[in-house]
């Protein structure tokens, strides 16, 4: 059975459901989890509403604070369930690559993630990060809908 589950999360409602289910799976199988938040770097020209109207400095501070809150929440849930958890925040242009690389670097044997997250218009234009993880990962992926 799986012993180390990577759980990418963006704090969206569906990602929270995936996190909760991954924690339950880890508890049942005596696995540990790594909660991952991927922060996209600031772009001067962007379709991401979180980046419109912000300076690079304010965006980065806001994005890091948001990611750290999400990860603290994940760690708290895991602790309450008696599941070992570490958290990782990375900055990456392509979240799906960061998810796969983090899973490989950390020795995860399962990636558990939501079928979609807070990607907005980017998801329409660029495609689903979950779909890209499914397509490119050599590690099994469990998708929560």
UniProtKB/TrEMBL annotation:
Protein origin, superkingdom: Bacteria
Give residue ranges for domain UspA. Answer: 1-145
What the entry lists under Gene3D superfamilies is as follows:
HUPs (3.40.50.620)
Similarity comment: family membership = Belongs to the universal stress protein A family.
What is the protein's name according to its record?
Nucleotide-binding universal stress UspA family protein
Give the organism the record lists: Kaistia geumhonensis
């Amino acid at each position: 059975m799986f012993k180390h589950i990577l759980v990418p999360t963006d704090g969206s409602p569906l990602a929270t459901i995936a996190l909760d289910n991954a924690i339950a799976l880890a508890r049942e199988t005596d696995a540990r989890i790594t909660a991952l938040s991927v922060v996209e770097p600031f772009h001067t020209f962007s379709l991401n509403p979180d980046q419109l109207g912000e300076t690079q400095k304010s965006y980065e501070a806001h994005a890091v604070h948001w990611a750290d809150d999400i990860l603290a929440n994940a760690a708290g849930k895991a602790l309450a369930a008696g599941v070992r958890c570490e958290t990782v925040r990375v900055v990456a242009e392509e979240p799906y690559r960061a998810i796969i690389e983090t899973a490989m670097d950390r020795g995860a044997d399962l990636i558990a993630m939501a079928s979609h997250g807070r990607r907005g218009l980017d998801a329409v234009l660029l495609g689903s990060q979950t779909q890209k993880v499914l397509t490119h990962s050599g590690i099994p992926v469990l998708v929560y809908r």
